[in-house]
Amino acid sequence: MTSDDAYKENIKKRTHYASQLSKKYIGIEVVVSGWVEDIRDIGKLGFIMLRDVSGLVQTVLVGETLQTARSIPRQSNVIIVGTVQDTKSKNFPVELKVNKVIVLSEASLSLPIDPTGRVESNLDNRLDSRALDLRNPKVQNIFVLRSGILRVIRDFFYEHQFIEVNTPKIIGSASEGGSNLFSFDYFKRKGYLAQSPQLYKEQLVLSLDRVFEIAPYFRAENSHTLRHLNEFQSVDMEAAYLDYTDMMDLIESLIKKILDFSKQSNRIGQENPLFELRTFEELINKPFPRVTYEDCLTQLNEMGEKIEFGEDLSDSSLKKLGEKYDKFFFIIDWPLDLKPFYIHEKYDNPSMSKSFDLQFGYLELVSGGTRQHDVSKLKSRLELQGLSYESFRDHLRVFEWGMPPHSGCGLGLDRLLMVLTGVNNIRETVLYPRDTSRISP
């Protein structure tokens, strides 16, 4: 029987994933499929450690099945038919006595990396072979967690009456007036890859009231750091009739929901994972500190770092503040001049803005604020920032159609995964990262 015939005949017969096998199935024949992580041959008895996406199962071979297994390369894809039996192993609740082994696809004897992780590979080699790298449960768990968090995020927004939207990623002008955009020829015109959904999500609250989007965005920044990518996943939200304090309440609730999910996740932490999942359990019922920009300057001055009013906060400054506030904290009420043209000024002090950043130490996770909905003030802010009115004409006309007051923010999903998993390189949290040196695979 060829492997194609075996596939057609057997693949639909898989009855269980490895993680589903328990003592209640003892004596029952089951069918599992996955890849051969290890083979041990001790003479008349042998073992295949079969791994699938859910975990690992130990299978026991004797006679003809052992003879077949001896020629199977590790990491090959197989189907195993076996009877569940009790085991003396402390690592498994049960094992399978193998009745039949069917090889679906043999793996090369010379693999580019060791997906078991026993032989370490550097990150570049792992990323070059990412699909194989994901067979390592230490790596796989990061993306299982990521998937679960995306589900939590969507459920949270639906519970709060948000509508999911999809905005264009090919645009005709800079969405925030920035210069770090990827440009290209678009049918004899100039096009750009979107660096943010900012203008679109503001326009959409005109009629949809509350919107959110989870999508990739692009920044042509020549950055070589452990926290920057040129393609990144952003979780964006915009809501009518909410102030920036309301938006902070929302984002804090969302982060705490994610922390609680991470704590509950029993998938993470198995088999000596690549990371120790941070639960932050003590934060779930405790408010995140909200520190004004001016208070930050005062505190930094007390720590010996002099920052002039109106200056942005450097990484070193944020690291010092992070040592004081330890985990999640908001920096609020930034000088208006430090913020994009669409951020609203404070009524009692127009030189300051109704804005916030959510920090984890020096790492910025969220940036947001109340948006300016007065079209005449938007035009003035564009002029003050030296931006072309013509580039934003289509956007500004929407504000003449009865735009409600609104607020919003954007959350960096990849950075949040860094915080939760404790990895220090953002590339660990992205399946196929794109940076200044990597455009494939």
The CATH topology of the largest domain turns out to be BirA Bifunctional Protein, domain 2
* Overall spatial form: elongated
**Helix tally?**
12
Count of distinct strands: 16
Question: SSE order in H/E notation?
Answer: HEEEHEEHHHEEEEHEEHEHHEEEHHEH
Tell me the domain tally: 2
Characterize the largest beta sheet: strand count, sense, and whether it forms a barrel. Answer: 8 strands, mixed
Mind telling me which CATH architecture of the largest domain this is?
Answer: 2-Layer Sandwich
Beta-strand share of residues: 15-25%
Mean pLDDT: 92
Describe the structure.
Helices cover 29% and strands 24% of the residues. By secondary structure, the chain is α+β, with helices and mostly antiparallel strands. The chain folds into two domains: 3-105, Nucleic acid-binding proteins (OB fold (Dihydrolipoamide Acetyltransferase, E2P)), CATH 2.40.50.140; 130-429, BirA Bifunctional Protein, domain 2 (2-Layer Sandwich). The chain starts with a helix and ends in a 20-residue tail after the last helix. 33% of the residues are buried. Mean pLDDT is 92; it is low at 267-275.
